[in-house]
Each structure stands twice: as C-alpha cells, then as structure tokens.
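Question thread 4412

I'm putting together a teaching handout and wanted feedback from people who do this every day. The idea is simple: show students a protein as raw sequence, then show them the structure tokens that encode its fold, then repeat with a second protein so they can compare. Below is the first pair exactly as I plan to print it.
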Amino acid sequence: MPIIPSIALGFLAILLAGGTVAATTKGPEFLGHPKGLYVLFFAEMWERFSYYGMRALLIFYLTKHWLFDDGKSNLIYGAYTSLVYITPVLGGYLADRYLGQRKAVVFGAVLLTLGHLLMAVEGDGGQGSSALNVFWLALAFIIVGSGFLKANISVIVGQLYPLTDVRRDGAYTIFYIGINVGAALGTIMAGWLGETYGWAYGFGAAGIGMLLGLVVFVLGKPLLLGKGEAPGPLTKKLEWSLYGVGLAAIAVIWALVQYQSVIQTLLIISGIALLGYVLFESFKLEPHARDRMFAVLFLIALNPVFWGLFEQAGGSLNLYTDRYVDRGDVPASLFQSINPIYIVLLGPIFAALWVFLGKRGIEPSAPAKFGLALAQVGLSFLVFVWGARTVGVEVATPIFFVFAIYFLQTTGELCLSPVGLSAMNRLAPKHLASLIMGAWFYMTAVGNFVAGKIGEATGGESGEMTKEGTLAIYSTIGWWTIGIAAVVLALSPLVRRWMHLDTLQDETGHGMAGEAELAEPQAAGFRTAGETRP
C-alpha cells in the first residue's frame, strides 16, 4: 500500500482507539465534554468519510466512466451537491415538528448507506448503459439521506449544552474536526481505491464508512441523554408515514437530478418561498429576536457566494489538477484531502487567535469574519491564476499553487463555516432551530449549484475544459468576490447590532454568561482556549 493511504489507515486506527477509551471511561463526560458529543463526532466522521470519499471520485466517474463532457459533468456535480444541501430543509422541518432529530438521523443514515453501496454498481459505462439509472437512484438515496441527517445531527450537538454554557462553541469545534477528519480519511482511502483498483472499490469503501457511522450512532443512544427526541407523542403510524415521505422524496429526486435546468428554476422558487416564510415567522417575534433573525438572514445570504467558489474543489479544480498540474504519480482525487487536513491543523490556531483577540477586545464580529472569509476565497483564485500564468500556460502548474489555493480557501472557511453553524444554533428561536439550520444548508445548496454553473463555464461552448479558459473564469470570480467582501465588511457593524447578544437568554431566563462584558466574542463563533472547526 502506498505511503499516503498507509498513514491514513494508521491514523484511523489511532482515532478509533481513542474513541474506545472515551466510551469506556467512567463518568458522564470525557475531556470536559458530554460523552454524547463524541458519539456525534464519530457518527459524523463516518458520514463525512462516505460523502467526501464519493465526492472525490464523482467528477472523474462522470467524465471517465459515464462519458459526460466536462461542462455537463460539472453541472451534474453541482446539481447533486446542491440537492444534498436542499433536502435538510425537509428533514429539519419533519424533525422539528414530528420525528425528532435522533430518529431523523437514523433514517438518514440508513438511506445514505444504501445509496453509497448502490454507487458501487458500475455497469458497462457510457450513457447507453442501463446501470446509469442505478447511478441516478444512488444519488437520490444519498441526497435524501443527507437531508434527514445533516441538519439534525448538528442540532443535537447544541442540545447537549445550555445556551449559557461557554463550552458550546468548543463543542462545535470538536464536531467540526470530526467532519474534517472523516473528509480527509474518506478522500484518501476511497479516492485511492477507486482510482487504483476500480470505481466499485472506492464507492464500496464509502458505503462501509457510512454503515459504521450508523452503528456508532445507534449504539451511542444512551450517551445522548434523551436529546433529539420527538417534540410530542409520536405514533407508529405517523412515524412510518414520515418515512414514507422520505421514500417518496427519493423517487422525486431520482427524476429531478437528471434534469439540471429544472433544479435551477426550483432553487429560485423554493428559495424565495423559504426566505419569505422565515421573514413571516420573524415578524411574529419580539423586536430583539426579530433583529436576530435579520442577522441570521444576512449571514445565510452570503453562503452562495462563498460556496460557489469553494466548491470548485470537487469539480473544475479537481479536473484541472488531474490534467494541468505537475502532480507526479499521486492520484488527483487525493488532493481533495488537503482542505480537511488544513482544517484539522489550522483549527486550533484560529481558535487560539480568536481568544487572543477577544481578550484584547479586537476580535472581529461574526459578520466581519464572513467578510474576511469572502476576501480569502476570492484571493485564493487570484493567487492560483497568477501562479499558473507566471510559469506559462503551456507548462504544467506547479503543485505548490494547489496547496496555496486550498490554504487560502481553508482559512476563509474557518472564518465562515464553524462561525455560521454556531450562530444559527444560538440566534434562532428554539421552535425554528432545525428549520434555520436547514435554511443555512439550503443557501449552501444554492452555492453548490452556482459552483456547477461556474464549472460548466470552464468547459466553454464545446463542453471541454481548456487551461486558459478556466484561468480566465477563476480570475473573474476572484475579483468579484473581493469586491463583495469589501461591502460585507462595511455593513458588519450594523449586523452586529442586530444580534443583540446582551439580551440573549437561555430557557431558564439567564443571560449569556459574561455577555455584558464580552458580548462580541460570544458572537464570533469561538470562545475559550482549545476550541476549533462543514
């Protein structure tokens, strides 16, 4: 086995040994956090292992096995990833009103396991193969399964802690590390198996990873301390009816994912409807809570810009790396692990930085961090274009610039994603918690579809990517995003006031601990020493 997969396998063994220690120690907590957090950590780690392992291979599977052209492949990739982030609205709503987060996560994990295993059905390849319908079905299972799991497992993390608990942001940091450890390991193992031994091996590994996540979550139920249960009495008839809704959604998505232009129209219509509903609910709230919802909507609205650029990683940038980068004998899919590895390495540094700045009263506000995130992701493309053009378009792009673009995108992500997860959970009223988290993922979905449209543009009129054409697109989106970042930074003081952190209260009626003196550091997404990170 090559050295990179061997290291990943060894790290996975060490991590699982640590999880065993956490589960077997006495007491309700481990390393200062409820043991339930580590159940969620490992369940989400395996879910991300499966998702990112499959994601690393998908664009190559579309172009090399199903023989779609580059532009169409990027559009399918964007449509798929956008639907993955739309369905949490449905899953979040059903969990909030009827099913509860825990059962929604279990149902989602079952669907995801089946979907990833169906991806291992290759058929003969080419668009005339009957197995192509199995491929669309596999995507549908994964999309709907993610809808029931993604938003709800994040909500359970917040339910383990009172709003006044200063460990909350640290918990999301640990959870975020789980996301990225799984993403890195899944990318390396599934990517290496898929590109070395065949697609079925890579996608099969992703399916096994998701199955392990399901097992961890089911066995860890006692450690969740009753969190995430149904909000009211749930009859078996109603419960199975809700599962039926999920299965019906699979049939709809199976048809929808094959017609990407329809998805674009639905994104516009459903996006307006969703934002309208959130505004309608906002005006029912008292003034400070209403203002917080305005702040939530502002932050959510920035998601499409950031993720539209960031998600080039699995699409056009993945193809660019495969064709135009001097990468030696390393499979192109393995470069998808750079971002999650950076997250794990840089997360603690950023956490310490926020604490350092917060103690001095100069930590950027949450909306300011969003502005900084946009500036960094825009800059990442400009640096990449500069590096590629400096050596000459006819020369393979040095691998250094692949690491550079992912570095700047990662530092941007650390200013946006964990901060956003925490802000959604803190600022949203309890009865809208999963819906708001779903809306957060919905606008991420819009960003993923935008990413697909950008990727499609790199294929030009012929549908085949060119190096110079791709670099021209990257330069344009880089400059536009830096301009948007400047506007966001200018508006950030106003949005900070909308958050009204000095009057934010827990269910017991107590204000946020230390809020009067350190209101903004609480808002920013990180709070105490040792905290860190989709």
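The second pair follows. I'd like the answer to focus on this one:
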Amino acid sequence: MGSYRGLHNIKNTYSSDYLKIKDHGFIVNNRTAALVGLDGTIDWACFPDFNSNPVFDSILDAHKGGYLKTKPISACNVNQYYEEFTNILITEFINSNKVVLRLTDFLPVSVYSTINFPEIHRFIEAPNSDIDIAVDLKPDFNFGVDHIKIHENRYGYLFSSKGKTLGISTNLKLIKGKSNVYNNLTLKKGTYQWMVILSGVRQIGNVEQYSSYDRLEESRNYWRSWTGKINYSGLYYDYVLRSALTLKGLFYEPTGMMVAAPTTSLPEIIGGERNWDYRYTWIRDTAYVIESLSLIGLKDEASKFLYDLMAIVQKDSRVRTIYQINSMDDTNEMEINFSGYMDSRPVRIGNKASDQLQIDQYGSIVDAVFRFYEAGGLVTTYLWDFIIEILGTLKNMWHLPDSSIWEFRSEPKHYLYSKFISWTAFHRAILMGKSLGYSAPYREWMRVRREIRSEIMEKGYNPDVNAFTQYYGSDEVDGSILRMPLTGFIKATDPKFISTMEKVEKELRNEDGIFIRYKNDDGLKGKDNGFLLLSFWYIEDLILMGRLKDAKQTFENLLSYSNHLMLFSEELNFTDSSEMLGNFPQAITHLGVIRAAVKLNRAMRKKGVKIQ
C-alpha cells in the first residue's frame, strides 16, 4: 500500500481557506510537479516545466488562484499514500470503514528525456458504493490577470488566453461557468472515470485517445525500475526511499539540473515576507546532492548531475548563486498581486539572490567534485582544469565580505561560513589532486589554506562567548557553524567546537531538537523559523562525537515531523513543530534525511550497537 499513517479528517486540514502545507502530496515527472491535497484538490502545478507560470496556484491565493477539485460532497475521512516504489499518488475517501471514492493521480514519465507529457491523469473510482462527488476546474495562466475564454466540444473543454491553453478531457458531464467548469455528479458503485488535464493543446480529443492506462503502467515501471538501482537496506529504509524518489523527481531531465523545490513563495513564517522562489538550481546544494546520491549507490545520477551542472557553469562568465533549469535566463525577482498563502505577502517569482556575492558557492563546487571523487567518480583533466580556475578566482576573493549561505539582504559581512567553506575548497583540492597525480599550484594552495585557517581562528572565534560566531566581530552564533566539523576544518571533539555547539544548542534550539538559523535582525519582517537542514547537520555532529544514542533519538524525532507521506518542507514552526512552513517538498531537507540515515546506520553497525 505504500506509506500510511492513518486516517485524516478533512475538516482538520484547513486553516483560513487553505489546506495546511503538510496536508499535501506531490506528483512529479522530471519536468514539472503538482501538489495534491488530502481533500483531492490540486492547488499548485506549473506547465510545461517547473519554472513555467502555474496553471493551478490557489495555494497562493484561495480566491484568485487556479485549481482542480474532485471530492465527495458528504464528509469523509481520508487516507493518502503512494503506490509502492513510485511517485503515483492515491487519495482514498472513507466512510463507514469503506473506501467510497479513490483518486489515483500521476504525471506521465518516460525513460526518453525528449518525450514530454505535460498532463495530469486522474483516475476516479467508486469501489464500494454509489457516491456523490463535486468536480471543479478553474485554471490560471498569469496569476489572475488574464481573461480566459472557455471552448467546449463533445469531449471536454479548452481554456485559452494569449496563446496559452489548458484542456480537460473526460466523460464526466461538466457545466460551463464564467471562469470554470464544474458539476455535482453521482458515481455508481463499481464504476470509474478518467480525467486528463492537458497543457498547450489546440483541441480536446476523446479521453480514451490519451491512453491513460498505458501511461500509468509506463510510469509505474519507470519508478519501480529506478528504485531498483538504490543500494541501501539499512535503518529507516522507507524514509530513504521516499527521499530518493522525491529527489529524483525534482531533476529536470532535459538539462540534468535540479530544482530546490517545485514551488514559490510558500512562507517561512505565516504573515511574514520570507517568501522565495525555489524553482532553481542552487550551486550550494551540489555537494549535498552528489554525496547523498552516492551514499545510496546512485552514482550514475550523481555523475550526470555534476557534469551537466559544470557544463552550464563553465559557459558563464562568473559563478552564479542560482541557475535556471533550462534555457530561460531570467532570474529577475518580481512581486505578484496575490494575497499569498494564508495572507503571507509578497508572492514572488524570480530570485534576486542570483545577484549576490556568496563566496561559499566557489567552495561548494570544489566540495562537490571532491565528494564525486570520493564516491569513485571520474574526475577528468577537463574537470580538474576547472577546479584550478575556480580556486584561482577564490584565492583573490575569499577575504571579501559577502551575503553567505543565508543570502542576507543586508550589508555584506565577513561571515564565518563562507570562510571555512573556502578553506575546505583548498584543503580538499589538495588531497584530491595529489591522490590523482594531477598538476596544480599546490604550494600556493597550501599557503592560502594556512592564511584562511589562521584568520578564522583569530577573528572567527570569540573567546568572550567561547564560540565561533556568525561573522567576524560578532558575539552571536549561527546555525551554519554546525557544518564546520563536517568539512574537516575542525574535529567535532575539539573543545572550541564543543563550546560552540553548546551555545548553539542553548541559543538556537527548541525542546524538539529544531534549530533556527540565527537570532540577529536580518532586515526582514518576522523572526526566523526552524530550519530542518540544521538538525540533520547536528545529527552528523553527534555521530562524529560518538553520541550515537543522542543522534538516533534526535533523528527519529525529526522523522516524526514529516507528513503522512514522509515528505518534508524546508522549515517547521519553531514554536509549534507540527506545522510545516516554506517551499514543499524541499530537496535540501530530503538530502539531509539520506545523509543522516546512512551515516547513522554505518556508525551503529561499526560500533556494534544493537539496532532495533
């Protein structure tokens, strides 16, 4: 049956006309994705690509936004789960202990990257009794601005505006409204219907011509064949598998790039302005992707991602913070006239973080190649030349102030994270290059490595607070410092790091083991919320300290905050850890799940700890 966590009462999933973020699943096909709520509503989907304008976006404005709804008219409980080893999502509505309505949703996926199905297929069944259902389709092409025309034929309806189209093909009898098509219908016991949502079409054909059964079987075989390549059978296997399937879906197959999340502007705090567009590839995430995929045997995916990304980076005149997943070159940030999720304005598309100086990006590239090398990947001479070029740039800029990992929109500072990631770049390049027998200016690299380390120890550690601090001269700690031992800069058992971690725990952690990133004012409205990646770094630190019992307990506590499908967003409400916040599902969080699970499993087996 797939992942299952009991029944949900639909009434409990709403808050101010919005489904809770955690009460969504998602379907995906290596081109784009859609969010499917527990109530059968698809309230987010972009076509044809992840970074296209959405056709369903009511999650960002319940009144203006587009949606597709299919649900029982009477009250029901809900069970939502994935078909085992797939990204095919099933939503069951249950009354009197019987499934009265079942929805099976998927985006067709193919092994051929040139084949694209910009379609949502929904299979609607009434397995055990007659059921009255409500169907409602309202698309949106330009965030509620454009007027949409509706054209009808005997097979369905076509919505159009300024050259954009969305169609619905179904045998269900629908009624044409002003901006939607809808009806209340009765499905007889044992009957079923297909509904196919089609993007970019000029006409609507008979629903049977879209071969939904064939597309379903192809998609099922694709996902199951791919999961067969995963080499992991240890602790928390179900979570590792679901994280891997989520990450695989977030790759944009034509270019090999990966979105950080398939959504934009889901808020990091309700009513706040930390609402960002994550439908881009972040250079910073590259090393996490490479290492996480390699840890579970997916070296082909790791290789393809690295070389595809490096090819795009090398074409550019500079290393950017973020990259478009396709040929679109516009990352300019603009605000949309939407009310936002639960009135959290602004709604943004684009991301001006691309214009910032974030020096850790250079170190992240080197770290990614090093992780690839560690996993047995082929580091060609061409790739090595690129490393030499990157470090040639980094040696002249590591000492500059920047915006660093959290992309502060305030005045640049000498953030410690950027400094020790720069150290890591030179350190790992030296180790890797010498092992491979490649030529490089090693003496110069070693000199720069010494300079960076000396400066960090002198200016980055504040003896008055017994801790490494957020930036030079600060007395505040930052959650990013938790990554310091994971880079090799300092041992987790070093007294200076131990005292730092104790301060981070005291200042930035809540009783559930969730960390905020920082406490200082970042120029944005509202306080920071619990950032999940930090908790996974913390677990890895505990493992390095030999505190396996604490690591295991913290990890299992974190897993309990995933949703009913084992999916994670970027953040949790710091004061109520049951509430997911931020874009969803979030790649970096699922990368953290894989890394922590594999490393904890290895450490426990190595120590001979009994695994229950």
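Top answer:
Good format. For the second protein you could add a caption like this: The chain has a mean pLDDT of 93. The longest strand covers residues 98-106.
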